[in-house]
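[job 4471] stage=fold_predict status=RUNNING
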Amino acid sequence: MAYSPLWHPGQALGIVAPASAPRAPEKLERGLDALAEDGYRVHWDPGQLAQRGYLSGSDAERAAQFHRTLTHTRHLIAVRGGYGCLRILDRIDYAAAQRTPGVLIGYSDITALQLSLFTCSGWRSISGPVVIEWDSIPAAMKEDVRLLLEGQLLLPIEGLTTARKGQCTGTLLGGNLSTIARMVGSRYLPDLEKKLLFIEDVNEPPYRIDALLTQLKNAGILERLGGLMIGNFTGDQSQTDQEDGDIMIQTILDCVDEYPWPVVSGLEYGHLSSRRVLPIGVSARLSADPNGGCLEILDPIAKR
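[job 4471] inference complete, writing structure tokens
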């Protein structure tokens, strides 16, 4: 089946700021310069926003900036995560987004906007780098973003640790666990029945991860999953030590022990300087056996 690429050299990559403002303006400038050096023509109007505390502008300003950028290009990358996307989900024109199907690149807090665009507008996205880190991420991450934008499939992710055996094919969804839990009860969270869910988080101790997963359980979400991939649960930009990491994994496994679907850990995804780039909203297959787990991406983010 032939697919059309979402992006090709020469097309603009729109810069959106739906969440927090950069802590240091020079990081944004370095990121924009690095994108240009890598061949991306960026569309960015810094005059559209005015920093408002920890946000990149008021709720109305950030939503309007997203919509204005979408009129220029359907290929978007977020300046930064942090916090703020949840506050503008009810301000997004999902009908307009559906008429202009695109892709949003980012992670962490950007999870909220990526999942709501999938639910309400049918968008597929890339859980990947944000602008302020583009100058410092490994070349492999940049290459994965390029491959996805060009409509290609990523290689299977092998060598995952099997926590529970099984196999499931379903839509790949996920991102930041805290953000996903905060979407419970809203119309913006996708139906996760038979879906393959990948999760990560940062600066959350085991008891808070327990509480977040218990919220998903009590909402009837966990029992309907098709499979779970456990990413990194880290401290501030660095992986927790081995003992804390073991406690975290055991906490998560205890929360999902009663369910029959496959579970793997060891997915290098999360708040790490070098991590996996994952598509959101595509078909994938999770296989978990005693020899290890494997995630295969079956569908490009480009639409037929």
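[job 4471] summary: Residues 242-255 form the longest helix (14 residues).
[job 4471] exit 0
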